[in-house]
Amino acid sequence: MKTDIILCGVGGQGILSIATIIGKAAMKEGLNIKQAEVHGMSQRGGDVQSNLRISSSPIHSDLIALNGADVVISMEPMEALRYLPYLNKDKGWIITSSVPFVNIPNYPAMEDIKAEYAKLGNVVMLDIEKLAKDNGVPRSANVILLGAALDAIGLERDKIEAAIRRVFERKGESVVDANIKALAIGIENSGKI
Length: 193
What we know:
single chain; about 20% strand
């Protein structure tokens, strides 16, 4: 088993929480992991990105090569486009929020972003903020996105749920339950665009 994942978004959106959950689940399955992170300035809407590599064999580098990512999980639709050169063009998946975080004056039109995604074979695009709000888990949009990516990642749902429990247990049972619910919402809404 080998899965190379790029997680990206804007500071404060929960990208590193997703990486932590995936990492803990992979370790519970006895897999090897390597992770590299780039932190932007969250208070200024800076880019946040993480390379997460999971394998049943030893991993020698924490960085993903061009055309090597199996999955790009993005909390922001334009941010995923930054990493298209890293996506495996034959079998890679993009799992992304459909709602832009407009933090630059020349942000591209969503029609242009969607046109780029239409050229690709495997794209899941969800309004995770609306799903989170409509389902009473407004602070768990990132875990909805993780649920939508679960099949592409290749880890077992119960291992992801156990990792969510470990990551959020210090925040109380209601936070754990909200995130388990968010995972299920993402799984239920993971159809391709």
